[in-house]
Each structure stands twice: as C-alpha cells, then as structure tokens.
C-alpha cells in the first residue's frame, strides 16, 4: 500500500463517523478534496484534520434532523426548569429528612413494621429525587434531538412522578413536611405541562418528520 492509499484509508475511517446518507452523497468528493490539499509525501491524517472531521461528525450526529417547533422548544425549556425544581426538591427532602424521621419515630400507635416502611420510603425518595435530575436533563436532550422514543420514556417518567405524589398524599400526616409536598406538586405540574407540549399536533408532525432522516442515517 503506497502513501496516498494509506492516507485515503485514514480519511475514510474518520468519515465513517458521519451519517450513512451523508457519506453516500458526499464521501468521495470530500476524500478527493482532502487528498488534493494534503502535503507532499503525507501518509497519515494530521491530528488537526482528524479533530476537525470528528467535530463535524459529532455536530451532524447531534444536530436535530429538522428544527424543532415552538411546542418542542417550550417543552425542553420546561424540562430544564423541571430539573432545577427536582434538584430543589431533592435538597428539600434531605434538609427535612431529620424532621420527618423524628416525626415517624414519635408517631403514636405506629407499629415497628409501618415505621420501618415509612423510613425506607423516605430513603427511596431521597435517592430517587437525585437520580430524577439526570433523567430530566437526559430526556430533555433526547426530546430536542427529535427522538420519538424519548416522548414515551418521559410518559413513563411522568407516571412514576404521579405515583410518588399520590403515595405521598396518601401517607400525608405528621410524618411529611409541607415543603416536601409543595416541591413534589411543583415538579408534577411542570411534568404535566411538558406532557401536553410534547404531544401537541405540532410536536407530532415534527417527530414524524424526524423519523425519516433517522432511518437513513
């Protein structure tokens, strides 16, 4: 294999990071341009060239197939706000945890089994609230990229949030801090508004359009 063949092979390996439809239409032309601008005697792709090609591939992979409509952009903003609200809720749960545990311990007529169950639920809520922040952000990114599966993933997440709010309301009493209920209700309302936005007619059209380029990528 001579030097130019080796260089061409290196360029094509880097171009493999690009979507298939883009490579089918433009790969040969890009390789020809790269080879024509290469230095005399060059046998390997220069690090700067490799970095530029990889950055271009990442931009193309991460860029939405078509610009998202206002409803989707609004949903993404709400989800970022939801992540902040979820983080505030996690902090609230942690700050009030000592008060809640003391209330559970002093609650009259509560059996040891029920006391342990409520304390376990509190621990689960603390861990879940922290993990939920990441779910909000990751799903917001996927929604913005036109990933239709993200809408249904968020639907499951919304169902889980609703379940947790209902469980908290069902067990409300001295064991629950009012701040926890307010934080949970705020997160639920943001999630509800997001659900409405990502399933509007405008959003549905956007995701149907986004599926077609993704199939060819």
Q: What structural category arises from helix and sheet content?
A: mainly alpha
SSE string, helices as H and strands as E: HHHHHHHH
Percentage of residues in helical conformation: over 70%
Q: Note the gap between the termini.
A: 31 Å
Rg, alpha carbons: 26 Å
Q: Please, how many domains?
A: 2
**Apparent shape:** elongated
Instruction: Name the poorly predicted regions.
Output: 213-217
Task: Characterise this structure.
This protein is mainly α. The protein has two domains: 3-62; 70-216, no CATH class. It is built from eight helices and no strands. The two termini are 31 Å apart.
Topology readout:
Layout: H1 3-15, H2 20-37, H3 47-62, H4 70-106, H5 112-144, H6 148-170, H7 178-198, H8 201-216
Helix pairs in contact: 1-2, 4-5, 4-7, 5-6, 6-7
What labels describe this entry?
217 residues, mainly alpha, 2 domains, 8 helices
Summarize the structure.
With 217 residues, the protein is mostly helical.
């Amino acid at each position: 294999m001579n030097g130019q063949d080796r260089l061409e092979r290196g360029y094509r390996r880097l171009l493999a990071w690009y979507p298939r439809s883009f490579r089918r239409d433009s790969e040969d032309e890009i390789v020809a341009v790269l080879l024509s601008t290469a230095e005399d005697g060059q046998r390997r792709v220069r690090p700067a060239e490799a970095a530029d090609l990889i950055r271009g591939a990442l931009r193309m992979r991460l860029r939405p197939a078509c610009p998202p409509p206002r409803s989707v952009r609004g949903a993404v903003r709400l989800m970022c706000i939801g992540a902040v609200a979820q983080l505030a809720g996690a902090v609230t749960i942690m700050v009030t945890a000592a008060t809640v545990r003391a209330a559970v311990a002093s609650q009259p007529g509560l059996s040891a089994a029920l006391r342990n169950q409520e304390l376990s639920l509190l621990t689960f809520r603390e861990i879940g609230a922290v993990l939920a922040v990441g779910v909000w952000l990751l799903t917001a990114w996927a929604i913005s990229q036109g990933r239709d599966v993200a809408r249904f993933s968020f639907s499951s997440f919304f169902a889980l949030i609703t379940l947790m709010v209902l469980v908290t309301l069902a067990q409300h009493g001295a064991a629950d801090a009012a701040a926890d209920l307010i934080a949970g209700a705020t997160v639920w309302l943001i999630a509800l508004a997001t659900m409405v936005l990502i399933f509007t007619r405008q959003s549905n059209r956007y995701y149907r359009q986004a599926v077609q380029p993704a199939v060819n990528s």
